[in-house]
Design a protein that fits this description.
By secondary structure, the chain is mainly alpha-helical. It has one domain. Helices cover 79% and strands 0% of the residues. It is built from four helices and no strands. Helix 2 runs antiparallel to helix 3 and helix 3 runs antiparallel to helix 4.
Length: 119
């Protein structure tokens, strides 16, 4: 279960770095639309990193498994935010087709949290 704390910490740090990179290094290099995509990616990345940490702490305090929601959310971060980051950096528009798959994983991760409400 400690692996999810490490994953959340690394993901959170990367989300801050990505946000700062977008705000400082990309601001003068890409257009408003691409910068907005980057900011969305960083925002979702950071938000879901915090959720991963909460899940990890929940698992530590209860002994319950959080593998399904944490795995779905982690995969969603990689596919959703990762595809947007790469799209902005490379200009490869085909990556836009990957983004919705990441979004679906994030949605599934949130819905799978309902399983934790079971006794």
């Amino acid at each position: 279960m400690h692996i999810w704390i490490v994953a959340a910490a690394c993901s959170g740090a990367l989300s801050i770095a990505a946000g700062a990179f977008g705000a400082h290094a990309l601001k003068a290099r890409v257009g408003v639309e691409l910068l907005s995509s980057w900011q969305t990616a960083a925002h979702y990345h950071q938000l879901h990193s915090v959720v991963l940490l909460v899940l990890a702490l929940f698992a530590l305090s209860t002994g319950r498994s959080v593998q399904l929601p944490a795995g779905l959310l982690a995969g969603g971060i990689v596919l959703f935010s990762g595809s947007l980051y790469l799209l902005v950096l490379t200009g490869s528009r085909w990556l836009g087709a990957v983004t919705p798959l990441g979004g679906l994983l994030l949605i599934a991760g949130w819905l799978s949290l309902a399983l934790l409400a079971r006794d």
